[in-house]
Amino acid sequence: MNIQSIWGPVILLLGITAIFTIGGGLSAVIYTDTLQTVIMLFGGILVAVISSFKIDGLQNLYSKFLESDVKSLSNPNITCGIMEEENLSVMKSITDEDFPWLGVLTGMTINSLWYWCSDQVIVQRCLSAKSFTEAKAATVLCSFLKISSIFIMLYPGMISRILFPDIVGCIDLESCMKVCGMTRCNDIAYPYLVLKILPNGVIGLLLAVMLSALMSSLTSTFNSASSIITLDIYPKIHAFFKNEAPSENSLMIVSRVAVLSLIAISVAWIPVVQENQTGSLFVYVQMISSYLQPPIAAIYVLGVFFKRANEFGVFWSLIVGLIIGLSRMTIDVFWPRPSCMDMQVSGTIDLRPEITKHFPFLYFSVFLFLTTITICLVLSGMKKSSFKHGKGTTWTTRHYGDDHKIYINGVHHPENFQILCKKQEQLSEKPSLRKFWKNSRVLSFLCGFENEESIGSESYEHESGRDILIENSKWKHLVDIMAVFMAFVSVGLWVWMI
Fold first, then answer.
1. CA dihedral over 81, 83, 88, 92, signed as positive or negative
2. Are the beta carbons of 416 and 399 closer than 8 angstroms?
3. Contact 325, 368 (CB under 8 A)
4. Section 261-276 average pLDDT
5. For labeling, which of 7, 92, 324, 410 is most exposed (least CB within 10 Å)?
6. How far is Cα 135 from Cα 311, in angstroms, rounded to an integer?
7. Is the pTM of the predicted complex or chain greater than 0.85?
8. Strand partners, 408
9. 3-88+132-271 is classed in which CATH architecture?
10. Domain residues of the chain, as ranges?
């Protein structure tokens, strides 16, 4: 496969994605993602099981992976294809350029905070849930599915390196260009494994699985980005020029045009990705994330914990953070890091500026995160804002006060919210064990909720007139328990992989 052959399949895939994204909207995207998730999960399990038999069980994974060395055809003395024990460790050296252990714990946490807490794709899915309990349950389920990728994607990828070291781990430029059209072929490990170990009938299913994964990501991104443009950006531009709200028809047209524009940008970005590929798409994605995501994560944290942050500080700290991130990305585009083969074969000299040569992108993520927070706090303190935060909009105001209007079954109750809940609980006759559990409220307190279930209503309306959904489900406590269990599982996995 050569580089030019990418264009046809990519444009065709984007075109198919655009058809049901534009035609179906968010509902079609969510239903499609749900179906594709099931297919991907069972397909991934199938590949993992079959590939493990190829190496006589996962117990041989560690030893055989260390034996999958690749020697250069042009120079046997080159060490770029030698496997070391550090390749099997999540916690690499603190000076590692890609994933130093301190950067993984800090920088990758910041990038993940942006994605899982403030990315439009995730937030839009949570806001589309029918109840708060369902949103939490879906999030917990998602965390279990995320962990499964270690066993159904990471391990098969390592097995692919064991079975086909000269293909997946090629180091000679001519061999790699012949196989995958790039300087390294790490990214073809999974699809190449699928093509080689599965029967013909199953190969088609698994290829559909991989295309489903790609299309799922594309549809989610296009739909969420077009929603931001249509609902947040375009109405302000329309009001500025015409001093009136846009019509429904114009919003519909803008949303369609936004999707088509995003597809055009995606196609135009292909050469940039190709030129800056280091043989690992995952590393490339983490690099871009470290340049663009930390400012948004910083503002999200401030929005939750710091009620004095105002629009002036937030806006200009985001602008400065974006400029700093784009500057670092520009430097890496024009002065890329030379590969191991370039330095050992061609004698290429590392011409990167010192500020980037010894500053891994995950450390840069921490720097950009802290810089954005500092700028926002300073600017917010310099210019006071007349905006007054409503109750429940920050961590310190998460418990609602006396000035809220409480409605129960359509009847207005002006009493304090907590007092009302206590009265309702005293009037209700419930088993003592259940009452003890509901009064403990440890998990709910940490999440910022009071004893809302005793109200007996699905929602209440506060002073802004906006309905807020209250948890009122028999599954609520089970979801909370599973969330805590998931936290312990995550910590256990970290300890195990170290």
1. negative
2. no
3. yes
4. 68
5. 410
6. 29
7. no
8. 411
9. Up-down Bundle (1.20)
10. 3-88+132-271, 406-497
